[in-house]
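Here is the promised in-class demo. Please do not try to memorize the tokens; focus on the logic of going from shape to residues.
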């Protein structure tokens, strides 16, 4: 069963579907341990690079191994993330060997939707190496079965953007009617003889607006790098601990 004809991309979209599902078990470590086991090889690495305030001055690169990945997803969920999705417009898949393909997307979008109404998108190039892993046969007569797993996932978040749902903006709303411009009865001639139409506003018509008295919005759920502070702290502490234990 060779890959490289879109199977790796389909597997990545299946992973996105798991991340986007909203269910209570996402708040349990065992849920994410199962997800990581199903989608990643035992020695897989996820590389994650974040930039502070969307400036190319300070970056936070992380290398997250399988021992840390379930905790990474759990802490992110516990920080108010109700769903995550991967958008892979323009992604391409190519074959490196019979059992190894790579999926590349130069403009991937990793979207986080929060319970307080915020949506945060991380944008940048994504590269995923997908391996074809055979299952051990329980009997010689059985047909060989395989699964597709990620061995290396790299996402460089060059830009993060924050949006908030209108319903999350609290305050007394008051509709304002669109203003009608004044119509002058006669145009004003210019010194060179041409006719000029003068208006008090540059726009002929103004869009109706909604005024919100004493408006308030929820606090931003992410830090300057675009992820929850608890998630970053989890990565920093656990990666340091892992390096100490390996050293």
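The designed amino acids, position by position:
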């Amino acid at each position: 069963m060779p890959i490289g004809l879109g199977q790796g991309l389909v597997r990545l979209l299946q992973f996105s579907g798991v991340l986007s599902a909203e269910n209570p078990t996402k708040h349990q470590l065992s849920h994410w341990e199962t997800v990581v086991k199903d989608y990643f090889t035992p020695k897989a690495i996820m590389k994650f690079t974040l930039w502070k305030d969307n400036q190319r001055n300070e970056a936070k690169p992380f290398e997250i191994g399988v021992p840390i990945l379930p905790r990474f997803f759990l802490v992110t969920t516990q920080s108010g993330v109700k769903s995550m999705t991967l958008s892979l417009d323009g992604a391409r898949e190519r074959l490196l060997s019979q059992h190894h393909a790579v999926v590349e997307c130069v403009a991937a979008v990793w979207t986080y939707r929060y319970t307080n109404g915020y949506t945060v998108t991380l944008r940048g190039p994504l590269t995923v190496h997908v391996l074809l892993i055979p299952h051990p046969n329980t009997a010689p007569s059985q047909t060989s079965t395989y699964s597709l797993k990620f061995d290396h996932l790299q996402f460089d978040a060059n830009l993060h953007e924050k949006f908030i749902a209108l319903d999350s903006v609290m305050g007394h709303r008051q509709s304002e009617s669109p203003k009608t411009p004044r119509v002058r009865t006669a145009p004003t001639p210019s010194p060179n003889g041409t006719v000029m139409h003068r208006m008090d506003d540059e726009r002929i018509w103004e869009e109706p607006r909604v005024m919100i008295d004493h408006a308030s919005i929820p606090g931003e759920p992410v830090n300057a790098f675009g992820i929850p502070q608890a998630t970053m702290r989890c990565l920093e502490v656990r990666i340091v601990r892992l390096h100490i234990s390996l050293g």
